[in-house]
Task: structure prediction
Amino acid sequence: MRRRILLALAVAFLPGAAPANPLKSLTDRADILGWEAVGRLDLEGRGYCSAALIAPDTVMTAAHCVFDGAGERIAPAILRFQAGLRDGATIAASAVARVAVSPHYDPEEPTSAESTRHDVALLRLAEPIPATTADPFPLAPSAGPGQKVTVLSYGRGRSNAMSREIGCKILATGQRLMAFDCTAHPGSSGAPIFDMSGPSPEIVSIVSGVGTYEGRPAVYGMALNQLVAELTRAFRTGEGVWPEPERATRRVIGTSERNAGSARFLRP
Result:
């Protein structure tokens, strides 16, 4: 049974649509209490993804959100994180100074189990957001099939306020992949998926894409702890980080970056 589940996870990432589970739009200030660290990652009005703070100076999102349609790195200068965005108002906002992505992530590789395993980016903010304003979320130590989760995201048709989905669950885990029966739409990439079983929310995974699992629509994510630890170290070593320190003042935004907008869940 275990082998069958792992094999299904490895091959089931196909084009598809996740089930239309009920979503609650969090439009009132009281609705987002405790969720201020979830936000929208904007690319100069050309698109957006969902994201969340995991430290006052660090945002986590999907790696495919920081590459353009030609597979080129998007310059941090055009990225902006808006924490707790709702109806044009934001709790806090910051530009992005540096980006870290696993060297094992290939933006030109077709969507697959391998690309999903590494589909995480960490963004170092130019201006840290104090925890008293938006308290960063910790990562969950573990999670297993059947566990209920909650997703906070900005998706197509609801870009100006985050939506919350409760009661969806983990379908399967294995080979550093996770399948969920949750909902995802363009703009949901990078959305944090939370374990709510403890005293406070903990991030289990993030939305990478949609596909099928055992013939059913599913959302796919990845195991985070090891990968996030590697990316955090990367800010010190420089591997997979841009801009490189010695070139930071000479970084030029190319034409392909100005036209960013074809990532898997990036809103056109």
